[in-house]
Amino acid sequence: MAELSLEDGTLWYETRGDGQPLVFIHGGWMNGQSWQPQVDRFDDDYEVVTFDVRGHGQTGATEADQYSVELFTDDLEALLSHLDLEAPILCGLSLGSMVVQEFMDRHPDRAAGAILGGAVRSMPPLNMPAELKPFMSPLPALTTSLSLTGSKTTFRSMLGSIRATTGERWLSVNPEIQSQAIDAVDEIGRDEFRKVFDALYRYEPSNLSHVETPTLVVHGEQEAPLVKRQGRQLVSEVGGAERLELSDSGHLVNLDRPNAFNSASETFLETASAA
C-alpha cells in the first residue's frame, strides 16, 4: 500500500490496474480489503483504487477530535487530486455510500458514475428535525458500552438490536462473512469507533435532485426496510438512477453475492463508461 500525508494523519491506499479510475470506499468499521472480490474482478480493465478511511484499517487513528462524512469526503477529494484522477467511477458501501453521496452533492457532474451498495442516507431515527437529533443521540450510551466492553462487543450489541428491530439477518446472511466483519471491528480502538459512529449519526444528506451522475443503488434482500426506503428515495432524486435488490444477501451485499454484484456493476460500468 501507499500513503498520502494529511494535515492530521496519513491515508493509506492501494492502486491496481490501468484504465478509467474505479474508486472503492468501504463501510463503517471495515477496511479496503472488504472490496477484494471487486478488485479481483475489475483490475484488468480499470485503475482500481481502494483506501482505508481515517479511523479504519492501516490509516487508523488521526488527530481530528471529531469525524464527519464531510471530512471523509475531503479525504476522498485529496486522494483523487493526489492521484490526478479525472472522471472517476465511485463505488461506496454503507458509510462509503454516504461519502459518495456527499461527493456528488459537491460535484454533480464530476464522477462518471456511482455504485452505492447497502446505500444509506442517514441513521435512524429518520425524519427527525436536525436540531433535535443531538438530544436523541445514543452516543452517551455507546461511549459507556465501549469503555466497559470494547469495540467488538459493542458492535455485536448493535447487530443484536438491529436484528431484533427488523427481524432480518441484516449485516450478512453468511456467518463466515459476518464473523470476518466483526473481526475487523475488533481492530478499531474505542475512541475511533465512537468518532466513526458520531460521523454516521450526525450526517444529514442534501437533496440530490441536481446530481447528473449515473447511479446504481444495490441492496440485499435482508437489508433493513428503512434503509431500502432511503434507497428508493435516493433513486427518485437522482435523475436516471436505478435500484437493484439481490436475493440471499444482507447489508454487505458485495460480499454476500460477489458474482451477482460484480455482474450488475459490470453492466452498469459499461453503460457509464460509454456515456
UniProtKB/TrEMBL annotation:
Q: Name the domain of life.
A: Archaea
Extract the InterPro entries matched here: AB_hydrolase_1 (IPR000073), AB_hydrolase_fold (IPR029058), AB_hydrolase_sf (IPR050266)
Domain named AB hydrolase-1: residues: 21-258
Q: Name one GO cellular component term.
A: membrane
What this protein is called in its record is Alpha/beta hydrolase fold protein
Going by the UniProt record, its keywords in alphabetical order are:
Hydrolase
* GO molecular function terms noted in the UniProt entry: hydrolase activity
Instruction: Say yes or no: keyword Hydrolase present.
Output: yes
